[in-house]
Amino acid sequence: MLNDALLHGLYRRVGTRHIEATAYLLFGCGAYLVYVLSGFDTHVTWAHSAAIGYCIAAFVGLAPINLGISRTALARVVATIGSVIVPFITLTSGQYPMQSEINVVARSGDLLLRNGIPYLPDATNVTDINPYLPMMAVFGVPRALLARTGIDPGSAWNAVGDPRLWCALIAGIAIWGSLRILGSLNWWSAGAALLLVASPTVALELCASGVDLPLAGFLILTLALVSRQRLVAGAICLAAAFAIKWVALLALPIVAAFLLTRFGRGAVLKFVAVLSVASVTFVIPAMLALPDTIAQVFEFPTGHGPVSTPARSPMPGVLLAEFGPAGRNADMVLLAVCGALIALSLLRNPPRSFSALAGYVAVGLTCFFLLAPVGRFGYLLIPMLLIGMAVIDHRRTHSHQTMLARHLRVMASTPILLERFAPATAIAARPWRRLLPTAHARAA
Questions:
Q1: Do 426 and 344 sit in the same domain of this protein?
Q2: Residue 215 contacts residue 168 (beta carbons within 8 Å)
Q3: What are the backbone dihedrals phi and psi of residue 202, each rounded to the nearest 5 degrees, phi first?
Q4: Full-model pTM
Q5: Which of 95, 120, 290, 389 is buried most, with the most CB atoms less than 10 Å from its CB?
Q6: Nearby residues of 405 by Cβ (< 8 Å), 6 or more positions away
Q7: pLDDT bucket at 15, cuts 50 / 70 / 90
Q8: pLDDT at 424 over 90
Q9: Is the separation of the CB atoms in 174 and 218 below 8 Å?
């Protein structure tokens, strides 16, 4: 049994505080790059607040002062306030113009209430095209309802109808619900989830756009439910994700491999049946205007429509596609190779836990987003959240005492590290002798 004083000293002095403080410094550098490189007013506004928040959080974590409270927790709160809360309130106050995708969601919600179809007919302008399936329009309904009350457009109450608020809310509920379903909800996981949300990729998307958050939330909730054999609820959540963007179906083969390995063929058939029924139900409004749905939801995002998509961030697939047909063919070959490698890995080592399941889905989506001939960096928010949740759940299955013991085994071979970081009372007991008795017997 490892000495408790040694474990406590190592945790407090070599633990997460210094690592997270370094991360905040890197986050601050990222916010500064957004400020310098981005041409969007919303991004610049976010970067101003986030950079200050990250720098203060890093100071709280690194400053050699005794604050009387947990500096790790305080730094997380400061980072969240600076990178999420302040810019979110600022950008949803009505004083700043919304990005085009938020206006698209708001308009689609109004159209859904008016005639049940969230698409403008024969759209030929980029701002008129709705590249989402009908479920996304639901997040624009609150704004449409507020507009029908005759509220002043400059009123602060309009923030209640902002689609970004509802996108963030559903993602937050999904993360909280997933942690609860997995049995991972505790102070540590809550702090880790807060740190994940405060990271630049998630925080910027949450404040400036938010349209990818519901998809990420539904996917995380799907995997959590499936891992606990709640197949009906999991299938409905995946159908909801699909009814936002069809790329959610890329998770289906991985979920099927998990179900087949853990629960058998019957579970796969039940899941697919419920998924099919729920998906058809959710996309009924899209079926009422099938030509517009095909043109706006499938042709436009893939770059095959008459209107060119603005989603052309300099990612590998986009850069390859700029070389013409040869580049596109090479891009498709790379996508096929990645798909084949993931399929081979699924056959040889299928996922058996939530963390493995989320890891597979994250890798698959990352490959797709990076190699797609059109796309933007914001899409990477989805695999990032999946990986973060996988890490949080993995820690649940590997106790903190076990993880510390592994680090101690490494440190035990260098007692000078223990003398630097562990309390003197713990060093006097020299508990590491029981970890590597032979080596230290020779050293003595």
A1: no
A2: no
A3: -75, -45
A4: 0.84
A5: 389
A6: 2
A7: low
A8: no
A9: yes
Structure tokens, 255: 């979920």
Among 406, 421, 19, smallest CA distance to 192 is for 19
Torsion angles phi and psi, residue 379, rounded to 5: -60, -25
409 within 8 A of 416, measured Cβ to Cβ: no
Q: How many Cβ atoms sit within 10 Å of the Cβ of residue 32?
A: 15
Same domain flag for 320 and 437: no
Q: Do 416 and 314 fall into the same domain? A: no
Residue 311: band (very low, low, confident or very high) from pLDDT cuts 50, 70, 90: confident
Determine the length of the chain: 444
Domain end position, chosen among 362, 381, 397 = 397
pLDDT band at 125 (very low <50, low <70, confident <90, very high): confident
Distance of CA 28 to the CA centre of its chain: 19
Residue-level pLDDT at 439: 41
Q: In this structure, what token pair is assigned to residue 434?
A: 């029981």
DSSP per-residue codes, 105-150:
HHHHHHHHHHHS--S-TT--SGGG---S-GGGGGGGHHHHHHHHTT
Q: How many domains does the chain have?
A: 2
Dist CA 327 CA 324 (whole Å):
5
Q: Note whether 414 and 285 are same-domain residues.
A: no
410 and 364, same structural domain? no
Find residue 375's DSSP bridge partners.
Answer: 312
**Domain check: are 285 and 429 in the same one?**
no
Residue 104 has pLDDT above 60, yes or no: yes
Share of the chain above pLDDT 70, in %: 84
Are residues 430 and 378 part of one domain? no
Q: Nearest CA to 46 among 9, 96, 2?
A: 96
Tokens coding 16: 């997460």
Q: Choose among 98, 310, 106, 101: nearest CA to 212.
A: 101
- Per the structure block, which two tokens stand in for 304? 């095959």
Cα–Cα distance for residue pair 378/369, rounded to 1 Å: 10
The verdict on 100 and 163 lying in the same domain is yes
Q: 338 exposed, middle or buried (CB, 10 Å; 0-12, 13-18, 19+)?
A: middle
How many Å separate Cα 74 from the centre of its chain?
23
Taking the C-alpha atoms of residue 374 and residue 136, their distance in angstroms, rounded to an integer, is: 20
- Sign of the torsion angle spanned by Cα atoms 381, 387, 391, 397: positive
What is d(CA 114, CA 318) in angstroms, rounded to the nearest whole number?
A: 37
Q: Which two tokens stand for residue 37?
A: 């490189």
Average pLDDT, the chain: 83
